[in-house]
Amino acid sequence: MNFITIIFGILFAHRIYEKEISMKLQLQQVFSTHENMLNLRAKRTEILASNLVNADTPGYKAKDIDFKQALEDKLLTSNSQLRTTHSGHISTSDDLDEFSLMYSVPTQPSLDGNTVDTQIENAKFSENTIRYLASLRFLDSKIKGMAAAIKGE
Questions:
Q1: Regarding beta strands 63-64 and 102-103, do their DSSP bridges make them parallel or antiparallel, or are they unpaired?
Q2: What is the average pLDDT value for the chain, to the nearest integer?
Q3: More confident site: 41 or 98
Q4: Which of 39, 28, 32, 33 is closest to 95 using CA atoms?
């Protein structure tokens, strides 16, 4: 082998390595957004279920989150957080409880101070569940599409 062939081989290998890194970063961005969205939807499901369970608890205040704002905050903080690459590294706080809970204003105040309106909470719960399932289906189709592209189908 001559020297020029070796140099071209090294440059070609470096270019392939750069493309692999770029692809990893793109995949990470795609999947981290959906991961954050699904985690927030799951957390909101817990909050709404808690509201429904406590519909008859005197003095209970119905809670919810502003999903859009919580997702924006989560995406901003996840892009700026450090990533652990070794088991000995100290993990950063990635807690979903960092968003602020909002309290519902009742349409018809009850005598016992409970602010849960079961019809509204059921509607919110159903909508959140449908959006969660839609996100899962979207993510599933993306993964199937990538698998088909890898297989050359």
A1: antiparallel
A2: 77
A3: 41
A4: 39
How many residues can be counted in the chain?
153
Over residues 139-152, the mean pLDDT reads: 84
In one letter, which amino acid is 93?
A: S
Helix, strand, coil fractions of the chain, as percent rounded to 5: 65, 5, 30
User: CA-to-CA distance for 61 and 58, rounded, in angstroms?
Assistant: 9
In this prediction, residues 99-122 reach a mean pLDDT of 87
Q: Look-up: residue for tokens 């499901």?
A: 45
Query: What span, in angstroms and rounded, lies between the C-alpha atoms of 79 and 6?
Result: 39
* Cα gap 124→1, rounded to integer Å: 69
pTM score: 0.66
Residue 94 has pLDDT above 50, yes or no: no
CB neighbour list of residue 116: distance below 8 Å, 6 or more residues apart? 51, 52, 54, 55, 60, 62, 104
